[in-house]
Design goal:
Keywords: Membrane, Transmembrane, Transmembrane helix. The chain is mainly alpha-helical. It has one domain. Helix content is 94%, strand content 0%.
């Protein structure tokens, strides 16, 4: 095996490794972004529910009675 053949194999394996780590890294980032988005949606839903309860006239009357 000559030297250039070894360099070619090394270059191909390194470029394949770089491609694989890029794909895995972007997938990992995508999963994290999605999980953060889901958590944000849950928090917004919870806050809007609390706001709805607080602004509900029935609850204000109930609180005034207590």
């Amino acid at each position: 095996m000559n030297r250039f053949r070894i360099y070619d194999v090394v270059q191909k394996s390194l470029s394949t490794a770089l491609f694989v780590t890029t794909v895995l890294g972007s997938g990992f980032i995508g999963i994290n972004v999605y999980n953060n988005w889901v958590e944000k949606q849950k928090l917004q839903a919870e806050l809007s529910y609390k706001r709805m309860i607080k602004d509900d006239p029935e609850n204000k009357r109930q609180l005034a009675k207590d």
